[in-house]
Request: fold
Amino acid sequence: MAFKIAVFGVCDNEVPYFHDLNKYNYDLTLVTENLSLANVDKVDGHDAPWINYV
Reply:
């Protein structure tokens, strides 16, 4: 079973890098919006959030 990570604040040009550099095969959910109360439900079912503020 893969470790599931919800990644917030991902820019469109970063998406290929997340996939190419994922050498441990994490199950990534890439979210373009920054983490907020409006979208915190996207963390449900994941093992960890990753906040990628620019």
